[in-house]
Amino acid sequence: MVKLTKAEKKVAYDSKLCQLLDEYSQILIVAADNVGSNQLQNIRKGLRGDSVVLMGKNTMMKRTVRIHSDKTGNTAFLNLLPLLQGNVGLIFTKGDLKEVSEEVAKYKVGAPARVGLVAPIDVVVPPGNTGLDPSQTSFFQVLNIPTKINKGTVEIITPVELIKKGDKVGSSEAALLAKLGIRPFSYGLVVQSVYDNGSVFSPEVLDLTEDDLVEKFAAGVSMVTSLALAISYPTLAAAPHMFINAYKNVLALALATEYSFPEADKVKEFLKDPSKFAVAAAPAAAAGGSAPAAAAKEEEKKEEPAEESDDDMGFSLFD
């Protein structure tokens, strides 16, 4: 096997990255802190088919992206440059971004709490028998963990928050967790940003459902409608409300003056004789009654001669 020189490796890497930029329009930018080579290999195998994982130095990736953008005239590639910070890699994919992101999240492995490591999560030591002999109680005393001796072994009485998220792991905490066999942390590729045809957005967007989008759209329409009504600017969303409000104003004016029109005449007629409201409401009240009552009314209707009904007094303001 021919061993490539350092310069040849750079040329090969540049060529591969340029090829991937041309072939794929979707890229996941992932953080690769504390991810080992074996774990990365398993991730590559799991994504094989429609996705390619590419790692490399940030300076090399930035240089290639700039040069390729100049050659092709595609300035959208430049949106990747601010994202290439820290220990990151690129996952080029033609699959569904959400599905690929979920697949990447599956490949996490447990890791011990090493001294000096910044805790990514809170570490809580659960209560119970530790299996350690009483000579090990010094570890628990240093960390102020309440214990008791039960059947010749140390038992933790209550759950204890040993390490808080963002704190560095101390030597005592690391030694205790190692003795208890607790591997509190898990590491894997973490999606930080998503590049899709030149657009860059947060991975949280991938978790949005159609219901979430409809809800946000409805909220936006409501805000547009409120603003349009406040400044009396006609929009498609505000037009129905404007027509209703205008009709109410015209109706109120007709009731306060001699001016009238057919719909206003009906309202004036009802206002002159409020009892008609009760007549119009009677069928609705009857509909809400019990079944026996309804049956009794049917029998009464059969026995009594038919009379002219006032049910036709109901009306619509838009008749």
From TrEMBL:
GO molecular function terms listed in the Swiss-Prot or TrEMBL record: large ribosomal subunit rRNA binding; structural constituent of ribosome
GO cellular component: cytosolic large ribosomal subunit
GO biological process, one term: cytoplasmic translation
CDD domains linked: Ribosomal_P0_L10e
Keywords assigned by UniProt, alphabetized: Ribonucleoprotein, Ribosomal protein
Domain Large ribosomal subunit protein uL10-like insertion residue range list: 113-182
The keyword Ribonucleoprotein appears for this protein: yes
Entry superkingdom: Eukaryota
Pfam family, one: RL10P_insert
Presence of the UniProt keyword Ribosomal protein in the record: yes
Region (Disordered): 284-319
Annotated Low complexity bias: 284-295
Entry-linked SUPFAM superfamilies: Ribosomal protein L10-like
Assembly information from the UniProt record: P0 forms a pentameric complex by interaction with dimers of P1 and P2.
Protein purpose: Ribosomal protein P0 is the functional equivalent of E.coli protein L10.
PANTHER family: 60S ACIDIC RIBOSOMAL PROTEIN P0 (PTHR45699), LARGE RIBOSOMAL SUBUNIT PROTEIN UL10 (PTHR45699:SF3)
Family the UniProt entry places it in: Belongs to the universal ribosomal protein uL10 family.
Protein's name in the database: 60S acidic ribosomal protein P0
